[in-house]
Design goal:
alpha+beta, Rossmann fold, 4 domains, five-stranded antiparallel sheet, four-stranded parallel sheet, binds adenosine monophosphate, binds glycine
Length: 421
């Protein structure tokens, strides 16, 4: 390979983690992040993730060799199609393939065609019919808005009142067009694992398994969030499970997508529930997870750039991924109030000296007059590696404790799930 000019699209912790890893590549000539955050300041260009025409123009002008897309929004808007149309190389699924995340009913239909183990489900456009169905199946059950709802369109109803009110909450316009169609699903019990796979449309290579902590509070209590922390690998995961999931979930998905004329290239991210009756697929995401990527990049030994490149060339079968033995933990520091209305503009001071096994990934941060400020809900991802979950947790929390971020909200129990096994 010669030297490459790479553009990352996004501004979260995931994109900082990708940037951190890509700048270690000997194949990299120059990196840009659009629009980025304070952690990626030296590579930032001020183009928003939704400004697809602006991103195309920039990539043409700067002779970008490879663009990597972080968030789902631009993928659902067709950024990959727009880049490919003008001959630009880009890592991610096309608009049609991105429907695996953009439409839950599309995802469920694909799972059904590919015979992938998942929760039983029904789709409704009429609230009265939905309520009738809930009475018939009883609780617990799970209600989901069909379209993209920033992770907030899911209600896990443990009692009848919540389930019936949930129908109105989702269908009464709170979620706009995303809530016009409602899915009602069987409630599944078990531990959740995120499995991200690189895919070139035919070959898929699994990354290390990750456990996310989606609820806002310790003990998996409180509201659902984008993710409050991750660790990898979870001890509940086994090589046998990985073989089962690749055989029964990942490869059938790629095959069905190919057969439908929408081969899937990019990161296929499976949200799995490990039930007593085997792994069941809760959902697909069509991109790197956040904060999954922070621990995955910390554990990846191989150079990321050639892997992404191979996905765009259909040569992934020639690639072998190498991972560090160490456990990685990422603790998200969020703004006070997150995931509801939260404070912005809080000044943050980071320690100058720290353990070399730790990285501070920025998410919602910016710089104003030389001062680091919080600008979003999830603000920092404090990531550490250690010989054990316990050691990685100790290193991560030791750093969390010396970060000067007034009234930051974070969980104290990231990774504890893995200690209990
Ligand atoms: P999703 O956006 O589909 O990942 O749903 C968000 C969260 O809701 C998941 O991470 C699970 O914790 C929970 N969830 C979704 N579907 C189910 C289900 N069928 N049974 C139990 N919990 C679920
Ligand atoms: N952490 C879950 C997600 O990225 O959707």
């Amino acid at each position: 390979m010669s030297k490459y000019r790479v553009l990352i699209v996004g501004n979260g912790g995931r994109e900082h983690a990708l940037a951190w890893k890509l700048v270690q590549s000997p194949e990299l000539e120059r990196l840009y992040v659009a629009p980025g955050n304070a952690g990626t300041a030296m590579w930032n260009v001020p183009i928003s993730v939704q400004d697809i025409a602006g991103l195309v123009e920039f990539a043409l002008k700067e002779k970008i060799d490879l663009t990597v897309v972080g968030p789902e929004d631009p993928l659902s808007l067709g950024i990959v199609d727009a880049f490919q149309k003008v001959g630009l190389r880009i890592f991610g699924p096309t608009q049609a393939a991105a429907q695996l995340e953009g439409s839950k009913s599309f995802a469920k239909t694909m799972m059904e065609s590919a015979k992938i183990p998942t929760a039983e489900w029904q789709v409704f456009e009429d609230p009265a019919k939905a309520r009738e169905f809930i009475h018939a199946i009883g609780v617990p059950c799970v209600l989901k808005a069909d379209g993209l709802a920033a992770g907030k369109g899911v209600i896990v109803a443990m009692d009848m009142d919540t389930a019936l009110q949930g129908v109105d909450e989702i269908m009464d316009g709170n979620f706009g067009s995303a809530g016009k169609t409602l899915l009602i699903e069987e409630f599944l019990e078990g531990q959740e694992v995120s499995l991200l796979c690189f895919s070139d449309g035919i070959t898929a290579l699994p990354m290390v398994p990750v456990q996310d902590h989606k609820r806002a509070l310790d003990g998996d209590l409180g509201l659902n969030t984008g993710g409050m922390g991750t660790y990898s690998p979870p001890p509940i995961w086994t090589t046998e499970l990985e073989e089962t999931v690749m055989r029964d979930h990942v490869f059938p998905t790629l095959q069905v997508m190919r057969e439908r004329g929408n081969p899937f290239t990019g990161v296929l991210f499976l949200g799995l529930m490990l039930t007593k009756r085997g792994p069941k697929l809760l959902e697909y995401n069509v991109r790197f997870g956040d904060p999954e990527t922070q621990v995955v990049m910390k554990k990846l030994k191989s150079d990321l750039l050639p892997i992404l490149w191979a996905c765009t060339e259909q040569t992934l079968s020639k690639v072998q991924l190498e991972w560090k033995e160490e456990v990685a933990v990422c603790v998200v520091m969020a703004a006070q109030g997150y995931p509801l209305a939260y404070t912005k503009g809080v000044p943050i001071r980071l320690p100058v000296e720290r353990d070399l096994d730790t990285v501070i990934f920025h998410a919602g941060t910016g710089i104003s007059e030389g001062q680091l400020l919080s600008t979003g809900g999830r603000v920092l991802g404090i990531t550490a590696e250690g010989k054990s979950i316990q050691q990685a947790r100790e290193k991560a929390y030791a750093l969390v404790d010396i970060i000067d971020f007034p009234k930051a909200h974070f969980r104290r129990d990231i990774g504890v799930k893995g200690l209990e096994i």
